[in-house]
Amino acid sequence: MSIETVRVPDLGGAEEVEVIELTVAEGDSVEVEQTLLVLESEKATMELPAPVAGVVKKILVAEGDKIEREGQPLMEIAVSSATEAEVSEGESADASPDEEAPDEEAPDEEAPDEEAPDEEAPDEEAPAREDVSAKREAPPAATGPAADDRADVASDAPVYAGPYVRRLARELGVDLQRVEPSGPRQRVVKEDIQSFVRRRLAEKVDGGANIPVVPSVDYARFGAVSTGELTKIGRITAANMHRSWLNVPHVTQFDSADITELETFRRAQAREGEARGLKLTPVPFILKACAAALRDNPVLNRALDGTAGFVQREYFHIGLAVDTERGLLVPVIRDVDRKGIWELAAEIVEFAEKARTGKLKVNEMQGACFTVSSLGAIGGEGFTPIINTPEVGILGVSRSAVQPVWNGTEFAPRTLLPLALSYDHRMVNGADGGRFLTQVVALLSDIRTLLL
């Protein structure tokens, strides 16, 4: 039997969190991913799942306790050897469809894991294990682009790891084929994942084969300076945008929507808005137009699944970027296609207020199919938004302006709204992006078509 200590995870930049609910008691049996307790910060409420299955041996905190540091122990779970063996044997059944399942493909090689740890495997199976180890052996040390290329090529040998380790690898973006196992019978354990990530983070970038390093500058040589640190949200945003820019081939297409009639209609709703306690902005109309265009152009409502497939979403949840003092947050408006303009307007106000006051929950920022980033209230004639991968598209909205437009006989004043659609060229072709943006423009130019 071993003891697994459950600790405080990354607090997401929060200076203090509170234990608001304990969902288990000492002596309870728990399963992997079962909620143990609920933490609340100034930004979100977070459920803490069990990393392993076992029995709760000791609870080290109480409801109402304040937690101020990452890594603080919260609970101890007793994991029996039988439970550990059961988790190992059930990894193929528990793995999600997008995970590799080498255990099913190579039952003969996995057979030794079904035996007791102190029992020797038959002699005829020893060469098979040696072959697997040899296949998964790290490439010989070398330098230069050729060595980097070899290091990036994953082995075809099966990988033995439990469902918790596989989930951890997915969350950290780690290819299990490239992780050197240290567990019994060449099994990858969570410490191997952590060591792999630490090594990769510590590696120095080779300017000849990878991304050139930006040289450091002593800015104090030129005048007075001060230093600071990015917020947690700022660091996460920077990492996500960098990952998207490096992995996603971006294409940005521009157009302008004539929203003259939309603005006339919107201003006519001022009295109704006062009665509802809402100010009607163009954003709900933009969300509705995007939902309709996603429905009619389903390629923009997909997500890449590995290198050979995709997932087609049948729902229409749209993220809306909100600028806050803590950084950029993206709450998700769900089922936009099923909601009316006033209902969307109320949700936008609610989520924007939650974002600015740090009350957004984690699940309220998940599940988007597409994102709208509006800088209309700030200004500017256009920008190129970066895709919030794994989404394949994002619409950038700039400030509208009255401009002279030739109507065939004369120049007439029209209100034009600049739009910029960035899309993932691995999934979305130029024609797909063009049709999507053209439809959004048409819907905003004549909002009556949103009823069709």
Short description:
The protein has helices at residues 81-89, 91-94, 102-105, 107-110, 126-135, 145-152, 163-172, 190-202, 232-247, 260-268, 270-276, 283-296, 341-357, 430-445, and strands at residues 2-7, 17-22, 29-30, 35-40, 45-49, 54-59, 66-67, 73-79, 160-161, 187-188, 250-258, 302-305, 309-312, 318-320, 322-324, 327-329, 332-333, 370-374, 393-397, 401-406, 411-424. Strands 11, 14, 17, 18, 19, 20 and 21 form a seven-stranded mixed sheet that branches. The chain has a four-stranded antiparallel sheet with strand order 1-8-6-3. A four-stranded antiparallel sheet has the order 5-4-2-7, with no helix packed on it. Helix 12 (283-296) packs across helix 14.
Can you tag this structure with a few keywords?
452 residues, alpha+beta, 14 helices, 31% helix
Layout: helices, strands, pairs:
Blueprint: E1 2-7, E2 17-22, E3 29-30, E4 35-40, E5 45-49, E6 54-59, E7 66-67, E8 73-79, H1 81-89, H2 91-94, H3 102-105, H4 107-110, H5 126-135, H6 145-152, E9 160-161, H7 163-172, E10 187-188, H8 190-202, H9 232-247, E11 250-258, H10 260-268, H11 270-276, H12 283-296, E12 302-305, E13 309-312, E14 318-320, E15 322-324, E16 327-329, E17 332-333, H13 341-357, E18 370-374, E19 393-397, E20 401-406, E21 411-424, H14 430-445
Parallel strand pairs: 9-10, 14-18, 18-19
Antiparallel strand pairs: 1-8, 2-4, 2-7, 3-6, 4-5, 6-8, 11-21, 12-13, 14-17, 15-16, 19-21, 20-21
Helix pairs in contact: 12-13, 12-14
